[in-house]
User: Fold Imidazolonepropionase from Pontibacillus salicampi.
Amino acid sequence: MHYDKLIINIGQLILPQAASTPLKGEAMKQLNVKEDAAIAIQDGKVAWIGSNTEKDSVKADEVIDARGRLVSPGLVDPHTHLVHGGSREKEMSLKQQGVPYLDILKNGGGILATVEATRSASEDELYQKASSHLERMVSHGVTTLEGKSGYGLDTETELKQLRVMKLLKETYPINLVSTFLGPHAVPPFFKGNETAFLDSMILLLDTIKEQQLADYTDIFCEEGVFTIEQARRFMKESRDRGFGVKIHADEIVPLGGTELAVEMEAISADHLVAASNEGIQQLSESDTVAVLLPGTTFYLGKDEYARAREMIEQGAAVALATDFNPGSNVTENLQLIMSFAALKLKMSPEEIWNAVTINAAHAIGKAQEAGTLQEGDEADLVIWEAPNYHYIPYHYGVNHTHIVMKSGQILWERKEGNAFYLS
Ligand SMILES: N=CN[C@@H](CCC(=O)O)C(=O)O
Ligand SMILES: [Zn+2]
Assistant:
């Protein structure tokens, strides 16, 4: 057989287990790894996976020698706030003085500062800025990701953010999932009249559906933001219109958002740092994916991290994401999050790889298209500057990608010898 591309001399090939439901508990601890492998690509899809010893009998137009490197599916980042205006570096000194995240928000900063910047940015400015963040994510190994609105808090700007997502989706050859996060904060004008604001966001759902601008909806259920009752109402209204639902739940104060996510059959419940024992128990009996964001806990300077070990031991499905945003976690680097998962969540390398591939794909409804590598799948893969899968969480804070490929096309490649003037 003759193929378009053949990757030979793969030291380890990560092949996460595909299933119709996310990997839970014990299944998260198993990672399928093929040693000394080769992989052939035809028409952008994985056409053959075999042993490297068979490589001479396989012909291809182009042969890539992985030289013993690790190869994995393209990473999946299931929680980002990709499209937004401005930046908030001035908040760092407030954080250093110990001003809590929710107090910064209460005083008109935080999310509300980014709302101002996003409202005043043009669609093109938002697109250009999001493109550069997106390209950095791809350079770090991501080929599938989710992005939320939520920095408009009004009809015009929420739709503007979602249109930017749509244009990114049409322009870049990657998988992008859009989420409407209209109820991300209460705009000052509606303070004390949260119901009226929520009504306006619910009204917007029909337009978003008609224009096919989002696949999911999301809400920030938190003290001083939206209550459990308000979140339940928004999630019900979203479901009635055919949206899948997500929730920023139990990030700071344990309100019971985890339990609500299970009750509403949310595709994911995100953050969960303060999830209750009951919430974790219910989660483990559901297919709702716990999307954990340890980079955010780190960036907010907190000591208590989400209880990933208890979640996994009790049988929940866990995924990891960057939560890339201009306030609570300012990094596009999902590899760094893999290190935090090892160091702070005490997750094993096997659990971490499942959490950034197949389970992350489940968390955004993309498990049919992403998160694993089987014959017939899109050839979305990363060749890593690493000898084995333990290495990526271990060597932290830098970019280890060698080649990032989407549907068999190289999107990013490390070129040797450029940009160094040391000798
Ligand atoms: N917690 C709520 N929303 C975002 C942060 C948004 C911001 O600070 O701009 C999050 O997921 O961390
Ligand atoms: Zn978020």
Summary: The chain is about 35% helix and 20% strand. The first strand starts at residue 2 and ends at 14. Residues 79, 81, 248, 323 surround zinc ion (ligand 2) (CB under 6 Å). The chain has a mean pLDDT of 96.
